[in-house]
Write a structure and sequence with these properties.
The chain is built from 19 helices and no strands. By secondary structure, it is mainly alpha-helical. The longest helix has 30 residues.
Amino acid sequence: MKFKLRPAERKWVLYDVGNSAFTLLVTTIMPIYFNALAGGQGLSDIDYLAYWGYATSIATLIVAVCGPILGTVSDFPGWKRKLFSISVLVGMLGCVCLGMVSSWLWFLVVFVIAKSAYSVSLVFYDSMLPDVTDPERMDKVSANGYAWGYIGSCVPFLLALVLVLGYDYIGLSQRLAMFLAFLLVAVWWLLLTLPLLRVYEQKHFVPAVSNPAAETFRRLGRVFSELAGNRQVLLFLVAFFFYIDGVYTIIDMATVYGTALGLDSTGLLLALLVTQIVAFPAALIFGRLTERFSNRKLILICIGAYFAITLYGMGLKEQYQFWVLAICVGLFQGAIQSLSRSYFARIIPPEKSGEYFGLYDICGKGASFLGTFTVSFVSQATGSVNLGVGALAFMFALGALFFILADRAGEKAGA
């Protein structure tokens, strides 16, 4: 039977299309632009990779601290939409400002603000999933979000690519072309957020209280206590922490990695565009596969694939190898993210989705802090970016181990 998105689900998916444009910008054009700024001001390739990694780590650490608190607040009636709107606005304005700064240090400061706001918006967005769909539709709706996000983000990316690569032919300066590229992505992000804001209704929530600030921290304390008695959720979060670490680190640092190896920047951008195109059908196919296989098995397949991808990445030296890497990442990137999101949404209390997805974000974005820091530190310590990337294989191995334990705990509990 053909799966068709309902109106509320379709508008929820549109936000994935909007915010994915910023993600693609961060992982492609933005690091190359930062490399030009940093190189022009005397930074070496190794330091460029490290500083970018440290900035990404700081942004993810901020979200790991703020995410659970803001997510818990968002579970009160009427708060989720407000906080979501603020985070999108800050992220969008930060994206525009990135095209205005010329100092590599100020560029990183604004980047941290914009990236943090973007990531916080995803805490609220992910926690909206139980409000816009039913449990039995979550796998496919989540998969559609990532799939259309990947392919839809290619539209502003291609337009931005024309500006960045063809500014001479258009008659623009490089600075102005970059500013217009950042502005284009910000406007795209905003326009595709508005449909969700117009129709979203917070159906699941906790009762309002007279002192929401104090109650927020009390509820956070209670949810940590609840985790001790729910082994499936606890073990899944530990597993997610490790395996998504490698996924997000590869997303955040792919272009930086290829640039540090001296690969052609135009080729890198086109290869990562292929990643987006491949990820579109792959995410939808994995969503359909949940009709025949449990999403637990599919998640394990994705983790194993990423482990192999990481080992392959250790030996990357030539441009064609980066293309192979980009295609392989595209096959599993959307699948592992969408399956993990719907898996988690199904095993948590829907009325507490904000606070639980706040913890989910700690394990996701917090893990990325560890991953980017590890790649940066190992690269600087050894003088080899290949060894830095290779260190991520341990994260996938640990993720698989804890996920198997979570799977067994779920079977015992009858989940």
